[in-house]
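Researcher: Batch entry, complex prediction.
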Amino acid sequence: MKKILTLFGLASLLCSGTLADEGMWTFNGFPSDQVKEKYGFTPDTEWLEHVRLSSVRLAEGCSGSFVSPDGLVMTNHHCAHSCIEQLSTAARDYVAAGFYAKTLVEEVRCPEIEINQLTKITDVTARVAAVTKGLKEKEYNDALKAEMSKLEKECAEGTEIRCDVVSLYHGGKYDLYRYKRFQDVRLVFAPEFAIAFFGGDPDNFMFPRYDLDLAFLRVYENDQPVRLKHYFKWSGEGAKNGDLVFVSGHPGGSSRLLTVAELEFERDFFLVKRQLYQAELRGLLTEFQNRGAEQKRYSNGLLFGIENSLKARRGMHERLLDKRFFAMKVASEKAFRRNINSNPEWRKAYGGAWDAIAGAQGELKKIWAPLTYLENGRGFSSTLFHIARTLVRSAAELPKANEKRLREYADSNLPAVRQNLFSAAPIYDDLEIETLTFSLTKLREELGVDDPRVRKVLGTFSPRELAVSLIKGTKLRNVELRKSLFEGGQAAIEKSDDPMVVLARKIDTDARQIRTRYEDSIESVIKKNNELIARAQFAVYGASIYPDATFTLRLTYGQVKGYKDARSGKEIQPLTRIAGAFERNTGRDPFALPASWIKAKDRLDLNTPMNFCTTNDIIGGNSGSPVINRNAEIVGLVFDGNIESLGGEYGFDPAVNRAVAVHGSAIEEALRKIYHAERLVTELKPR
Amino acid sequence: MKKILTLFGLASLLCSGTLADEGMWTFNGFPSDQVKEKYGFTPDTEWLEHVRLSSVRLAEGCSGSFVSPDGLVMTNHHCAHSCIEQLSTAARDYVAAGFYAKTLVEEVRCPEIEINQLTKITDVTARVAAVTKGLKEKEYNDALKAEMSKLEKECAEGTEIRCDVVSLYHGGKYDLYRYKRFQDVRLVFAPEFAIAFFGGDPDNFMFPRYDLDLAFLRVYENDQPVRLKHYFKWSGEGAKNGDLVFVSGHPGGSSRLLTVAELEFERDFFLVKRQLYQAELRGLLTEFQNRGAEQKRYSNGLLFGIENSLKARRGMHERLLDKRFFAMKVASEKAFRRNINSNPEWRKAYGGAWDAIAGAQGELKKIWAPLTYLENGRGFSSTLFHIARTLVRSAAELPKANEKRLREYADSNLPAVRQNLFSAAPIYDDLEIETLTFSLTKLREELGVDDPRVRKVLGTFSPRELAVSLIKGTKLRNVELRKSLFEGGQAAIEKSDDPMVVLARKIDTDARQIRTRYEDSIESVIKKNNELIARAQFAVYGASIYPDATFTLRLTYGQVKGYKDARSGKEIQPLTRIAGAFERNTGRDPFALPASWIKAKDRLDLNTPMNFCTTNDIIGGNSGSPVINRNAEIVGLVFDGNIESLGGEYGFDPAVNRAVAVHGSAIEEALRKIYHAERLVTELKPR
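Model: Structure tokens for the complex:
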């Protein structure tokens, strides 16, 4: 293990004398022996299968768990925020007031939530290798994508079975993940935003913490709650200091295996650009909220997302700017390359990969602006533009053979395309104008006033003028119109004079051109050479390493444990109490407890644990993951990592990296005594 | 010269075969021989004195020139923007409509502009050295500041003579600069903002360019225009491609002599923090402008300042992120240190300076947030707070002996303190609330919710709540109240219950504490060791190097010359024509030519040169500098540098670094045919 820790972690095995609780392990590669060695408990196959089938993914980027035989799903409030916002109106604001369906019939369908349950994992590395073997970069990449689409199509069934080929170790291994897909997902319960996100942005990624970042959803089939065999039971006790705990969830992505050249690109280019964009947008939205209560209500989720991401990127950037950390990465790559080069066969097979990737990073910088702004949509931040582009591209892509399409239009992905395209979620003109104006302004700024593509988009218009005319002029708010354009295919699209469709059409060739250049001469180089590096790693380190996160199901182990705060030098206790929330209450947003809490104070056991932190290795995407004990019972609900965990993107620091969770007892206490949600409590803890 | 170029510049003498036009030279250290060698013209003592006395400084951060015997001053519109805005009202918007005083009596006094004319330079290095010799860091710094205040007081006379001790080469040399100070400065002419800043932020720092970034002011004494012996005459011809030109102005600051540790601090910490702050504020103000036409009018100058600074910082940051450039800096420092260490005497005297400075940078990081937010005022962005703090500190400082005061309250600086404190410039409540809310939010973010100083400031208030109560509650809008508090001294301040005074009082001890820590254990270390490095440089390179910019008068030489654009590979011609402005006109802000131009189009000679670029080595602060020919006649007006010049902060690149100026002929053409400013034309070009 020593080699692995040198490569990925910050702590040395020799120093601490114990293994770090590091690693986001796949379910078919979980190191049960390591857990046994450290904690005396061996998760067996049956245990792993039960946990896997009880865990779920929210397809837009979160985790969750089944917590009853009737399809009840527990996740975070911030994972269900967009649904709660979409179901709200000015007169009936569920974000502010919370939501509780006292009866089954009161549960309301979320327009855009899809839930996936991982039912099977199949190794398809050999099949992928068979079609890509010996191919040059572009051909390699084309063949790879085609085979992935093919495999996914073979595996999928109707809209109910979703299949994704997952590239692990950046191409070292390919697994086919088969999911049960649920698109009828209904809102059951959400507390008030004020307690779900108590402390707001100032306390985000901080610990100690006092949040009830909780929501319950339910999956339906044929208008009935789904009956489940596998789900997590509720623990009677909750988590205590020192307890062994597991987190089963979907970490979105990590960058621990990146090369130094890739890390430099992130540190010196990408993260800087990204943060500056988000900081400006944050300022814009903050002031937009002053336009009125309504604007504040419906821009809240967006602003939260921006602030959350900005703070996360800040933490990541700081880790890369840490000279000591970066020097370690450089030294470790150097040692690894020396190792590879010392063996003539390895040298020949893998030796050139790092320089090839470094070269691709240089090329990426050159086309980053048009790629990001034209193709990846940052220049057109508007739901209505997104709809227009999906219509334009669907018309062009769907007539093609499945393997020839842009990946996001492959058959296996069409249910998601349809769900978003035909969503009845409300769209707010002034917010659309605001974000579109901003993004058009940045498009002009990043590509330059005189770029022909910018001139094509703007003409003589100012960004605001254009945004206003597009948003006011388009009819795509009408879901029936979207359906008819979608069904009408290429002919309907070509005939449309809807201004947003016209814009999406007008810029499509340029956007595709830059994407092709990226895929053929950059992505392909990175992928092919990353596969080589992965194979080199297997050659040197064997299969004992875990892959970077890929928004697929992973299992981590760890324990409830405090840490020493680096700045203050203080020892941070791992559990907070409900009393602490009342102490922190100032009555002013974001430190204002909701009225329901103030009213219930006397009834509450203030000594109930509220939040806690654990050594589990998690990252963004893990939000909503269950924290379970060795009996696979729920003891908590992950909703955050501490500020030190943000650098975990690049390397895990066992001394201070902590997952942050809502304590099971707080959930129970709140449901019972504040929200009087007896129906839910009974479902979670049947007598 | 080879050594110098290796140390400071980017080009090698050996490569180009000619000297680069690099260097922001002092008037008492100007390399006339170099100019002769390259251009065959020797500026002599008389020429230099005439140019020096014809150049002026706008004390808040710009340059300008005397252009008539009657005190007429030419500068940039953006240097006079704040005055033009302050003199405007909703009904009479001089920023939008422009301003022209047809007669002398119509000239209007600017509330806050101070103009300085450099009349004498005296070397005081020996006097400073005598009091600081052998002292340790804190004592060194205290003695240095006391001696500077003393020297300045001895030299100054009333409010009319201003004296500043200038630290050159980061402490290698001290000169006493004696200025004639003018505080009665009146607005004479300004064109419309739309042409002064044609192309707006997108074209800012770009070339080719089409701006008339021009304003005329006039200095008065005893209510009469000042009569001058020295001023620049107007050239009959203007500048042509290849012409030798000089720029005499006040570059604000540069960082070419910084150590690698200091540059790393800038690259990895300071510039990141600064840009993120400004980007967010930019977004906020952009949306604030949507509140209405009035808000747009009075937040325009502020937004311009933020965008301008942000773009400049972006360019600076990119230069430091350029791996090749940074490696050159590292190598050059390494070679220099090796050189120093090879001589035992030098080693003993100077060898430890670099590590000491690096240590101080580490300490600075630790206290950067409270220093910046509490002491440097970033946590309290409000004119009214600034007034309150000035009152609180004046009361505490003025009773002390001159040498014991905070430097900005020394006698020599009091006229500037008074001018700002008693300014009748309008203050807008909603903009004050906006910026104060933002800065209080960032204060909380950077220091942390639980920092006792943050708790002291906010109490249980939210940032917005506190900002509203302060701005609505304070009476400091009333200039008479400010005067009475200022005259009333400590007793009046202690008795005041004005909420802004109360806040300034409440936080003053904490702010001073962090400043003291900075001055005593960081600034002092940096200053003392920078002096050592400067001496080491003199030892190795002699006196042939120029000092970093210090917002004092400098002279640069160069020529009208195009360059090759690195991105597009295109050759950029050095002169643009008035016709180009019409071609670029879209009719939409910021590419909308004003009505006066459209109307005058037929009368204009469209072939008239509009803007031009030169190889002169300039930087922020040089805005408003005259471009003169060898006869010391005006041929242009510096208003910008190209995007490549932004990296000039850290090193001059002769291939692409360009100053950007309004052409003299465009000024004449516009004054005559668009603005019909006959009085001005006659004054500039008497028959």
